[in-house]
Amino acid sequence: MANILLVEDDTTFATILENFLKKKGFDVVVKYSVKSGIEALKRDTFHLILLDYRLGDGIGLDIVDALRVEGKAIPSIIMTSFNDVRTAVKAIRQGVFDYITKPVNPDELLMVVNEALEGKSTERERPALHNQPNEMLTTMETDFVEGTSTAARKLHDYIALVAPTDMSVLIRGESGTGKEYVARSIHQMSKRADKPFVSIDCGTLSKELASSELFGHVKGSFTGALNDKTGQFVEASGGTLFLDEIGNLSYDVQVKLLRALQEKVIQPVGANKTVNVDVRVIAATNEDLLGSGKFREDLYHRINEFEIIVPALRDRRGDFQQFVDFFISKANVELGRQVNELADEVREIFGAYDWPGNLRELKNVVKRMVLLSPGTRAEVSALPEEMVFAIKNPDSAANPTPSSDNPDLRLHSEAHERKLIMDVLQKAKYNKSKAAQMLNIDRKTLYNKMEKYGIE
Ligand SMILES: Nc1ncnc2c1ncn2[C@@H]1O[C@H](COP(=O)(O)OP(=O)(O)OP(=O)(O)O)[C@@H](O)[C@H]1O
Question: Ligand 1 in contact with 145 (CB < 6 A)?
Answer without folding.
Answer: yes
